[in-house]
Write a structure and sequence with these properties.
Structural class: mainly beta
Helix content: under 10%
Distance between the termini: 19 Å
CATH architecture: Sandwich
Number of strands: 11
Largest sheet: 6 strands, antiparallel
């Protein structure tokens, strides 16, 4: 499952799991936006949306309007455009915080039934 890493109100990094809903960046806090509300909608700032219908969704793209200043991996973008996101891409919209996109799986606790003694996990 892909994630966005962004700063919360306390300026701490947090992971936002991406489902199959687009993420709207027109507000200070990115929020999911129902697909139905995107039909004939104008992109005000930027929108991160899933591409394709495979489950889980693996391909995401960032779309922005001509009035937005978008930097991807430190490079200034075209006045209006689209970028297919790759693992560890960073982007910044206008004067907002840097956001990181990743397809890396977050670590989790799981049981290992095959062990006959306790095993230390280095991760």
């Amino acid at each position: 499952m892909p994630y966005l890493w962004l700063r919360d109100d306390d300026r701490m990094w947090s992971a936002l799991p991406l489902t199959n809903h687009p993420i709207d960046f027109s507000q200070s806090i990115p929020k999911e936006k129902p697909v139905e509300r995107l039909v004939n909608a104008q992109v005000e700032q930027a929108l991160l949306f899933p591409v394709g219908d495979d489950r889980p969704i693996k391909t995401w793209a960032l779309l922005w309007g001509r009035d937005s200043d978008v930097r991807i991996n430190g490079l200034r973008s075209f006045p209006a455009g689209i970028h297919v996101m790759g693992d560890r891409d960073e982007f910044k919209i206008d004067n907002g915080d840097t956001v990181y996109f990743t397809t890396e799986t977050l670590p989790g606790v799981d049981t290992f039934e095959e062990a006959d003694h306790d095993i230390f996990c280095p991760r």
